[in-house]
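In this supplementary section we document a worked example of the pipeline. Step one takes a protein sequence of length 262 as its only input; no multiple sequence alignment statistics are reported here. Step two produces a three-dimensional model, which step three serialises into structure tokens for compact storage. The input and output of this example are shown verbatim.
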Amino acid sequence: MKGDVSSQFLSALLMALPLAGGDATIEVRGELISKPYVEITLNVMRRFGVAVERDGWSRFHIPRARYSSPGTIYVEGDASSASYFLAAGALGGGPVRVEGVGRESIQGDVRFADVLEAMGANVRMGDGWIECAGRGRLHPIDMDLNHIPDAAMTAAVLALFADGPSRLRNIASWRVKETDRIAAMAAELRKLGAQVEDGSDYLRIVPGELKPGVAIDTYDDHRMAMSYALVALGGVPVRIKNPECVAKTFPDYFAALASITA
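The serialised model returned by step three reads:
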């Protein structure tokens, strides 16, 4: 199977094949993107008694096996959703602490903390928490964000408040998400006053004077709504169209955001 469009197809097959009645092998053609998400799948499968052998990220051997309950399992908080609140700490001053996910997390999106640090925020991490506080104007970044494509959308909005141009690279998978996220992000960033260059797998964002009161189209994409709501924390009022789209992953997002901004 191809691995350069989405890792979700691979994760689905990995989880299903132990139930297919025999050993199986998956060969991945091309570069596998979003490897940390596949690692989450393999980690949880091991916890439920199925150990997948892999040769790099190009071949996976799935044994005929039965899933078995580990008895008790700790379900982490969602690191992708945590990115909005950590970004809120960077923009609004903070500190903001997110609990339920930390330095021992199996989720790749905890590495959004690296992005925040590169932008000049102060980040602290414990076993079950991450905390972020702003330290003045954000710095621009030039980073490969292939490993955290969801949280990378939060970084694109933070780039509006940086003191120079930012470049988000290796994000071609954005093209095949809930919407074409590269095109959608570029359009809404421009509406807010940024100069944006959008390529097949990158965004270059040059911040400008931000326009208050812009109505953000969300394209029925929950992450568009959640990330662009952060613009208000930079002192720029913004209107989010179709806010109900956040119900896909975070139905009470706006209430949670309001609870830390009162």
